[in-house]
Amino acid sequence: MLQLVNMSNYEFDRRMIDNSAVCLEMFLQKHEMDGLELLFWEDWNPALHRKPWVQGAHLRFWPNWLDFWRGDRQAVLSQLGGEEQVVASFGGWSKEVWLERYRREIAVAADAGAKYLVFHVSQVRPDEMYDWRFTASDREVVDATLEVVNELADAIPPEIELLYENLWWPGLTLRDPEIASRLLNGSRHPKTGFMLDTGHLMNGNLALHSQEQAIDYTLKVLERLGGLKERIRGIHLHCSLSGEYVRESRKQQGDLSLAALMSHVMKIDQHQPFSSGRVKELIDFVKPEYLVHEFAYSSLREWSDKIVRQQQALSNLTEEAAS
Q1: What are the b/e assignments for 263-296, b being 16+ CB within 10 Å?
Q2: pLDDT tens readout for residues 88-100
């Protein structure tokens, strides 16, 4: 099992490591990490994010893309606000232009030596992020996703794994084995599987109040997958217990500005480290090839502290013993 950390090559993340490969190398060595799952916002700089470190790549995600893909101009314009916003988001009205963005990103990831690609399978309109009254079904989102990824299949080198990631919005939630199986069976790419995101799974259950409850719930969901569990190739490991916030936020209409939506999603999807030693039960049950310590962070110190805390949990060290 390779232990990785998530990172992007966006300007903020580059500044955090002082734009220094030496700083990044020291960080990885300090935490005994095997490398990176990298999100390519910009072209790859091999002098900074060295090829031996790049194990996987997280493809960019458009939360609200289904109306665009279906060609529903009225729905797209009503949600994005105008033609300029459509161009900024998708590059225009052409599906091919949007797909080409994916193809360029896949090419960069392949050049960097990524062994796997992560693809989000989800759809949500802005207002649905608050009220959870979804217009698309899991099956509709999965079927449309298959149309997209099968258009991209020829751009993905056959040796690179395509790993589908679960979210709590319509699409792949991993709560329905039939939907999960449909996604794998309908994919043209020869090497597919799942990237289990533990926090995203927890976000779909508003009744969770503790890490122990969350771990029990996650194990039950995984058990229901049956043989599909063997197709989980990696885990984005983090904790999210946001049920109380979601219940309160659903009582009122939220701000639909981009900044407000991003803040809202971050409050749902908390990306906090596990501290319970029982988290090792998840790793032992899945036996992933890739374990990604996936956190939100605003500084190198915060990032480091979260990794240490979760590593202690994985070593079955309690917070009390660790202190």
Answers
A1: ebeeebbbbbbbbbbebeebeeebebbbbbbbbe
A2: 999 999 999 999 9
